[in-house]
Fold this sequence. Notes:
Elements (H helix, E strand, L loop, with lengths): L1 H10 L1 H14 L14 H15 L9 H16 L6 H24 L3 H28 L16 H21 L5 H23 L3 H16 L4 H15 L9 H6 L4 H4 L2 H19 L9 H8 L15 H34 L7 H24 L9 H21 L21
Amino acid sequence: MMTVGTVAAAFNRFAALLVYLWFALFRPQEWVWIDVSQFRFSLVLGVLLVVPALFSGILPNLTHPLSIGSVLFLAMGLLAQFGAVRPDIGWQWLDFLARLILVCLLLVTMVNTKRRFVLAVAVIAGSFGYHPAKAGLASLIGGGVQFYEGLSGAFADNNGYALGTVMIMPLLLGAAQNLSKSGSFERWVRIAFFASVPLSAFTVVSLFSRGGFLGLAAASLTLVLLQKRRLLAMGGLVLGLAAVLPFVPIQAGYVERMQTIGAYQEVGDESALGRLHFWQVAVEMAKQHPVGVGVWNFQYAYDAHDFSGGRYGTGRSVHSSHFQVLAEMGFPGAILWAGVFALAVRIAWRIRRRASTPGLTDADRHFLFTMSNALVASMAGFVVGGAFVALALNDLTWLTFALLAALDRLSVRVLAGEATETQPVGPPAPAGAAGV
């Protein structure tokens, strides 16, 4: 994959984008038996993506409102760095965030045809979704297996892994709904993506994450309510669950654990009670540091603001993406965070309305409708599930904003009747690049 992908990336900027996304989300360096870190594959792919793109006139998009919101969020992180408890940690995460947002802004520019959009979603969904689909299949074959850890990177623990799985499931569905039914390869990929959705859902169950369960419920309900025939979709979901659940091995204690979601005080659940305390500490941090304590600095500032006398330990995580932003980027960052999500939902709703414009082809209607639904459901899963795990800087959230901005721009061109399948990005490609 790296050999073929690197050659393709050297000739074609969109290929470079896809290979970079694959490497970032699949994380192949974690699954090989040798240490490949010395090859700096991520840096190589990043250079192959960014440098030739800039020299060829493919610039990051800075005009779409979601692009502007992403840049402003990075600015809020830089502002918080002035009061960071651990500036070195803050700079590490700001570097990560800056690179992530740069790739997202390039994605908004490059993904300017329906075909490219479907491929980008398929690569993002398939690169991450492969892991939970495989884990769900393994758990089913094993008669119900509980997973205690997640993947690497931002989704290293079970709660983060569950949340990432919830976010990727609507994208798997959206890609499957728009992949071609004619070609034999794409037809099999389409079937695999459809099958990955229930397998991934079972992985969320196998991770015993209460936040993941709530996120899964939110994403599923949102997706059902967005359908044109809501009652039929809801009935199909209920009947499907009723038919499948009796034959699905559920791990012992799972139901009892989920029942503690609303009864944590009665059962004395220290984990849930601790989360409430951490959120209160986040509010106190924001009051004392209005522009934040620094990106990813909550745990280093926790002991100085803990008013429980160390009841829940030292150097703790905030256990919430939303309170993470409040504590680490202050009130300006939290307001911007909420505003970007509100704006994203509004834009997705606008795209859905465009799907009903008279004169559109059935293919265009289907594309705009299903993809906007998938992005909204993914965001709903994060907003709910992310309330219980600190993942504000994860790749999938910001890529979702970028995909939504690209879809918004693309929907305007679809309404204008412009060709959306073959128009290239930037100057003409050199001879042979199209074949690559």
